[in-house]
Prior knowledge:
By secondary structure, the chain is α/β, with parallel strands linked by helices. The protein has a single domain, classed as Alpha-Beta Barrel (TIM Barrel), CATH 3.20.20. 45% of the residues lie in helices and 10% in strands. The chain contains 15 helices and nine strands. The strands form two sheets. A seven-stranded parallel sheet has the order 1-4-5-6-7-8-9. It is globular, with a radius of gyration of 19 Å. The two termini are 20 Å apart. The mean pLDDT is 96. It binds coproporphyrinogen III. Coproporphyrinogen III is lined by residues 36-41, 50, 55, 82, 84, 86-87, 100, 102-106, 151, 157, 214, 216, 335.
Amino acid sequence: WDHRCVPVTPLSTPDRSAYLLAARGEPVPHTPVWFMRQAGRALPEYRAVREGTTMLESCMRPDLVVEITLQPVRRYGVDAAIFFSDIVTPLQFAGYDIEIKPGIGPVSADPIRDAVGVAAVRPVTAADVPFTTEAIQQLVSELGGTPLIGFAGAPFTLASYLVEGGPSKDFAKTKAMMHGQPDLWHALADRLADVAIAFLSVQVEAGASAIQLFDSWAGGLSPRDYERFVQPHSAKVFEAMKEYGVPRVHFGVNTGELLGLMSEAGADVVGVDWRVPLDEAVRRITAAGGAPKPVQGNLDPALLFTGWETIEPEIDRILAEGKAAPGHIFNLGHGVPPNADPEVLRRITQYVQTKSAHVPA
Ligand code: CP3
């Protein structure tokens, strides 16, 4: 595909931004770039404003959410902002007892094992989260032409924290529930789909330009289990969000074997980690006969810790492979590590934007 040139004019709304054009598979002024988990501990200004405030408290304060969301936009000049929150915060807003432990992740003292546990999961409504609506409205006005991405955790990845009680490598308890108590599993996943729909809807209604559904840990599943136990629930989320008309992005780590199924769940844009080259990802997405879709990715975050002489040819390779798709949003293959050097991320952003720009003859 020829990611063709369009004139560069200052934008007051995100509609013609490089990110949204690429997500819609339209010609772009340059390949847009942003980084998953771009707000966070890699930034000294983040560590400064977060000092003495828990993650949950921060997410309930519009002033902090606005500031933290804007920090990477200012520092890196990325083409999109992502709303500062976490995949488990909607559960917390709804009064569910799950904690985010620094350096560990979401932890639940009372993991879900039965119908009583499932019944405790209820979605938030806009009335529960006035601070979210306020923060997003303010962000959209401050961001001008830069789009704001709303996001939520997909049912499987959220369920993995609730059933395991914390981060897991093998998801043994979650898989035991799927296979041993399928009715309970489907009831839980259905409720978590409603949580995602509710939180995404609040974000889009407040002005978010796109949504990304994170199924970060889906790569732990076989295609067969994914298709039976997970895809219908993620599909419910994408189907419910269709009416808003915003691009719907789907991402998970280690999902090389699942790219076709995750695309079919209803994604408009498929996120790819570093294990599969983008041109091969397009082949997998279209293997079952589906239309080619824009892709997002996929620089290995580990390469941030090598030298520029390693990073630059990798970016060139990824930009070339991205041409196999009708649109390419440059990103890392997973989130920014907390010890990444912000200067490297700034250089990558500028390099992608400059290198991919069509210079008028
Ligand atoms: O900049 C952004 O990307 C927006 C903010 C964001 C956070 N979490 C903030 C956060 C987003 C999009 C997430 C999503 C998220 N949370 C995912 C999906 C993306 C992915 O990385 O796969 C997952 C699996 C989680 C669960 C989670 N929450 C983890 C694994 C952690 C890290 C634990 C740690 O401390 O290393 C968290 C906590 C968290 N979420 C932090 C931030 C900035 C760190 C907490 C802190 O700074 O005190």
